[in-house]
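Recap quiz, item 2
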Amino acid sequence: MIRFNNVNKWYGREHHVLKNINLKVNAGEVVVVCGPSGSGKSTLIRTINQLEPIEQGEIWVDEVQVNNPRTNINRLREEVGFVFQHFNLYPHLSVLDNITLAPIKVKKLAPEAARERALELLVRVGLEHKRDAYPSNLSGGQQQRVAIARGLAMQPKVMLFDEPTSALDPEMIGEVLQVMQDLAKSGMTMMVVTHEMGFAREVADRVIFLDHGEILEDTQPEWFFTRPQHERSRQFLRQVLAPMHG
Amino acid sequence: MNYNWDWSVFFKSTGIGSEIYLDWFITGLGWTVALSLSSWVIALLLGTVLGVMRTLPGRFAARFATVYVELFRNVPLLVQLFVWYFLVPDWLPEKLELWFKQDLHPATSAFISVTVCLGLFTAARVCEQVRTGIQALPRGQAMAAYALGLRLPQVYRKVLLPQAFRIIIPPLTSEFLNVFKNSSVASLIGLMELLAQTKQTAEFTANLFEAFTLATVIYFVLNMALMLIMRGVEKRVRVPGLIALGGK
């Protein structure tokens, strides 16, 4: 479904953010990407829908080469859902309009059909009663669930999550993870940048550990948590799994 | 000050038909409003396009808009008006020039010159406000829209501009009022708008104080009314909780 072939990316001349990335995500797989901050995790998933361009290598989504200048990048983005750390809902539109905007404008869906689909999705994320609310009247967890519904409304083949729970109060993380877990069960292909190791352990099919722009581990969660191959990943795990930061 | 105010002057006959001096003010107000509204339409449309251009990734569009703004913002309005009225017609193709100078009613040609001048002048200022409005939005707004596959024009029309305009309503209102006030420059090329009618009344009646007092009151009331209307607009389009709008 997603393939990285020898991908390299630099910020400016000096800063080599992605180093020789080779990666494959199969249809229906849930892949968690973790690593210390500044390791290039967010950049990595942002290259998949070209929110970040790459300088070298190839990225494929199915039969479409993302970084080919002849590729219609908008077409590609219709098929790749993206959920942001800060939700980025449109504050001037109601919850329902947030979800229906792209299907109506981009997919040319009839407004009625778009509405119906949006309502189904709102039921799925447990927010059908909030359809006429504005984003600013929702909690962070609710906003993120709406953002997920907004992504799903385009019926994407893949969903990418960029630290979807990092901006949330602790008591709201669970509701968002639950929605993501349900989504994973329904067979959606997902790539998730997160520090939620519980999610990685229970939901992910594979865990990728990234450090300084390099993939150090790409393995099953069980192996990652019990037998990490690199000192850097062991150190990372000690830090994120430590019950207290002392 | 020893002055005998005589407010009845406005109801005296001008000596032309059954006209009274108040009629001159009403005609003048009509021109002022017509001038200002047509200039404002130009300014708002062109200013929005230019403001958007200044935020586009392409360097050429942004540079063009920047040059436009600097040119129209740094030359006094009155100089611009004289250029539009006295010079530009001479540069037109001959047929157009003759039509503009001879066939058109003098009031019409003056009206066109002022409208174009004031519209383009104000567009530069609207442009800057639209640009700041767009740039004040979090970067994630555009990114989220692009990530959903929206095309660039849709991103601006549906996501960025509706929010930017809500933010800039207050400065835009004062620009709108400026157009009405600036339209008084038209009196210098003989268009009989409010200020010109005032001056003419003062000269004909020698009641200078009354004439200018009335003009002051009319400008003031007109601008107050516009301001209240714009405040109503601001309230109507307010989005609950959108911080950028300020207040509750």
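Chain A is about 40% helix and 25% strand.
Chain A touches chain B at residues 49, 51, 74-75, 77-78, 80-82, 84, 86, 88-92, 101-102, 105-106, 134, 136-137, 147, 150-151, 154 (CB under 8 Å).
End of item.
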